[in-house]
Amino acid sequence: MARMGAELRRQDFVEATIKVIAEHGVANATTRRIAAAAGCPLASLHYVFHTKNDLFYAVYESLFNLPHQALEHVPAGTTAADTTAEVLRQLITWFIDHPDAAKAQSELFFWALRNDPEMASKIYSVAIEATEQALERAVGAELGEKFLKAASRLLVQLVDGLTIAWSAHGDLHRLRAETETACAALALLVASH
Torsions phi, psi of 79, nearest 5? Predict the structure, then answer.
C-alpha cells in the first residue's frame, strides 16, 4: 500500500470532519468518528492534528477558503453594485452546492463561540479579510477602503444569516428568493455610496 502524504491526509480529515459535523453536530464529532469517516487510523488523525481545536480550525479555514475560491472568477457587473450583489449570489450558490459545508460552518462557529471565543474571533476576522480581498478583486478600487471593509462585513453577515435560516427552514426556493432580496439590498447600499 502506498504511503499518503500528510497534506492529503489532512484534506481527508477536513472533509470527513465536515461530513461528521453536518450529520452529528460538533459535540458528537469525536476523533474516532472522524477517523472512521476518513477511512484512516485514529493515530494518523492525531499525527496530522495535534489537538481537536487544530482540526476544527483547519475545517473552518477550509470552509471560508473554498467558497472564496469560487469568487476568483466572478463576472464583473456593469457597476460595483451589480458585482457586489453577484459576489453574495455566488457565495450562497457555493453553499447550496455544498450543503454539508453550510451546516458544518454554522455548527462549528457557534461551538467555537461557546468553547473557544479566541478561536471564534480569529475565525471571524479571517472570514472578513478573505471576503474583503474577494470583493476588492471583483470591484477594484471603485469602493473606498472604509466602505470596502463595511461592505465585506455586511457580506459575511448576510451569508451567515441566509445559511443559518436555510438550516432552519430547509427550503431551497425560499433561500434563493431571500438571497435575491439580500442581493438587491446590498446593491442599493453599494450604489448609494
Answer: -135, 165
> How far is residue 101's CA from residue 159's CA, in Å, rounded to a whole number?
13
Would residue 23 count as lying in a domain? no
The band of 1, judged by pLDDT with boundaries at 50, 70 and 90, is very low
Please tell me the pTM assigned to this model. 0.82
Lowest mean pLDDT across 51-65, 82-96, 158-172:
51-65
Our count of domains for the chain comes to: 1
Whole-angstrom distance, CA of residue 153 vs CA of residue 72: 19
Which residue did the predictor score with more confidence, 49 or 143?
49
Nearest to 137 by CA among 179, 90, 96: 90
Q: Is the dihedral of CA 161, 167, 169, 174 positive or negative?
A: positive
| 133: CB partners within 8 A, 6+ apart | 68
Here the CATH number for the domain that contains residue 87 is 1.10.357
